[in-house]
Amino acid sequence: MERNNKLALIIIDVQQGFEDKRWGERNNPNAEENIYSLLKIWREKKWPIIHVQHISTNPNSPLSANSKGVLFKEIVKPLDGEVVIQKNVNSAFIGTNLEQYLKEHDINDVVITGLTTPHCVSTTTRMSGNLGFNTYLISDATAAFGMKGPDGVYYDANQIHNISLATLHGEFATVLTTEELIEQIVTK
Fold first, then answer.
1. Cis status, amide bond into 96, omega within 30 of 0
2. Which positions ≥6 away from 160 have C-beta within 8 Å?
3. Alpha-carbon dihedral angle through residues 26, 29, 32, 33, given to the nearest 10 degrees
4. pLDDT in the model for residue 5
5. CA Rg, the chain, in Å?
């Protein structure tokens, strides 16, 4: 496939608020480093990069507008000129110009990374696939936190992450590791 600057990297919600202890146990401690590896490649190739920032409407959220947690983590902080899209719901497509931006720039292929796998990453990935974008979700450039189900059963971060990926792969996206993406897509 001819890439010609049409493979966008979407980095979802890699914000300081996800360091807050209230989230609990997290998997994929190297997710941000993997995102940074991809970000470096995209910057070198001058491919489109889209940073998504969650700004919670809940004033008690670690991602609220009035908290330090809303800020991007330094490792993937946007550079001047890189696109930043702000949202206040799980999908980066709802209430934003993301879909319009991709279409106006003839971008049909997107790579999704970020936090967290079962929430904003999953919701954005589902919508991306439903909207007809060729979507790649990078399994080791995303992460999840453990959580309790409605029955009170605790599911650890790896279970949440892996099940989230399983529900997306093949239907909404192609799930790859960072290394697989670089080998199969980026270097072609």
1. no
2. 27, 117, 118, 144, 145, 146, 147
3. -170
4. 56
5. 16
Nearest-angstrom CA–CA distance, 64 and 70: 6
Kindly report, residue by residue over 25-63, the tens digit of the pLDDT: 999 999 999 999 999 999 999 999 999 999 999 999 999
Instruction: Compute CA distances 4 → 99, 165, 169, 175, 178, whole Å.
Output: 19, 28, 26, 22, 20
Show the tokens assigned to 172. Answer: 């909404």
Looking at residue 3, what is its pLDDT? 46
Are 149 and 163 within 8 A, CB to CB? no
Task: Judge whether 13 and 31 are in contact, CB under 8 Å.
Answer: no
Query: What's the start-to-end Cα distance of the chain, in Å?
Result: 8
Q: What is the SS3 assignment for 42?
A: helix
- pTM flag (> 0.90): yes
Q: Average pLDDT, stretch 152-173?
A: 98
Six-digit token string for 130: 């439903």
DSSP assignment, residue 106? T
